[in-house]
Automatic annotation (TrEMBL):
Source taxonomy: Bacteria, Bacillati, Actinomycetota, Actinomycetes, Kitasatosporales
Comp. bias (Basic and acidic residues): 163-181
Coiled coil (residue ranges): none
SUPFAM superfamilies per UniProt: DinB/YfiT-like putative metalloenzymes
InterPro entries associated with the record: DinB/YfiT-like, Maleyloyr_isom, MDMPI_metal-binding
Domain of life: Bacteria
Pfam families per UniProt: MDMPI_N
Domain Mycothiol-dependent maleylpyruvate isomerase metal-binding span(s) in chain numbering: 17-95
Protein name: Maleylpyruvate isomerase family mycothiol-dependent enzyme
């Protein structure tokens, strides 16, 4: 039986993130935007934010030319904002996070992964700032539910995750019976790190059996 998609979930996740992230960004000094982002080698906080704001603007404006969201297009979007102030990038990001939800809701799931990616990049920024709660916070339940559904729809490697703060295991991926599911025991933010190829430095201990970490990466 296919998963029932909640069309409001991606937008809800981004609204939660907007309310947490934008005040944090407005509180930081300009030099903090030059900090490197470990999860995105070669990119600064500013570059990550420019990429995120540009992607949201593209979706809101329905600009999906050939090669959209490719590395080359991402680099071009960032370069186009080279002469912007940090405040202008944050303004565009805030506007995109506010406006994109209904657009994603109407896209029949085709853009749900973008919402998850934007949320993960917010965690990348928190990590660069040394802020607590990277890949966690109030949006984590929606992010995990979205991650689980996306991995099942893509037929990703199966995994049962026993999370520290959830009573019921989370089922990710789908094997069609061809492969027994792997098993993860740990917390939600660490699971997000594994599925998005983020560094595990400083993450609490976890157990992973029946599957290799590299197989979980949905961006790999």
């Amino acid at each position: 039986m296919p998963d029932v998609r909640d069309p409001e979930q991606p937008g809800r996740l981004l609204t939660i993130e907007r309310d947490a992230l934008i005040p944090l960004l407005r509180s930081r000094a300009d030099e903090d935007f030059a900090l490197p982002v470990a999860a995105c080698p070669g990119w600064s906080v500013r570059a990550v934010l420019a990429h995120c704001s540009a992607a949201l603007t593209r979706v809101v404006e329905k600009r999906f030319e050939e090669g959209v969201f490719s590395p080359a297009t991402n680099d071009r979007d960032i370069a186009e904002r080279d002469d912007w102030t940090n405040a202008r990038i944050v303004d565009e990001l805030e506007r995109g996070l506010f406006e994109v939800g209904p657009v994603i809701a109407r896209a029949d799931g085709k853009l749900d992964g973008l919402a998850l990616g934007e949320w993960v990049h917010a965690g990348d920024v928190r990590e660069a700032f040394g802020e607590p709660g990277a890949y966690g916070g109030a949006g984590l339940p929606d992010a995990l539910a979205l991650l689980a559904r996306i991995t099942r729809e893509r037929g990703h490697v199966p995994l049962h995750a026993d999370l520290d703060d959830q009573d019921e295991p989370l089922r990710l991926g789908e094997s069609g019976g061809e492969r027994p599911p792997g098993r993860f025991i740990g917390d939600g933010p660490t699971l997000v790190r594994l599925y998005t190829g983020r560094p595990l430095d400083g993450a609490p201990g976890f157990e992973l059996a029946g599957v290799e970490a590299k197989e979980l990466n949905i961006f790999g």
